[in-house]
Amino acid sequence: MSEKRTAANRRNAKLSTGPISTKGKRKSALNAVKHGLSIPTDRADDTVLARCCRQLRQVLISRLSLSKRRAELLISIASSGRI
């Protein structure tokens, strides 16, 4: 890589620091929640958790071609907090 390119990358990296304010960090921490695949369980009620499990089950079966039994096993392990 050329020195010019390296210098440009370093300048750009200085601008890509992520959120700085507390409000920005809080908002950014919830990005994965939008899709229902990651939720802070201490803030979720049973309805939200059940919906997330259904979505995860659907992804595991349809996208990864897992059997229903294996999907349930993965959901069980994930919800136990062992991952």
Structural features, described:
- The chain has 83 residues and is mainly alpha-helical.
- It folds into two domains: 1-31, no CATH class; 36-83, no CATH class.
- Helices cover 60% and strands 0% of the residues.
- It has helices spanning 3-15, 22-29, 46-62, 68-79.
- Helix 3 crosses helix 4 (68-79).
- It is elongated.
- It starts with a helix and ends with a helix.
- The mean pLDDT is 78.
* Total number of beta strands: 0
**Radius of gyration computed on alpha carbons:** 19 Å
Report how far apart the termini are. 39 Å
Largest β sheet strand count, sense and barrel closure? none
Strand share of the residues?
under 5%
Unreliable spans: none
Name the shape in a single word.
Answer: elongated
Percent helix, as a range, is 55-70%
Q: What string gives the helices and strands in order?
A: HHHH
> Overall mean pLDDT score?
78
Helical segment tally?
Answer: 4
Brief summary:
With 83 residues, the chain is an all-alpha fold. The chain has four helices and no strands. The termini are far apart.
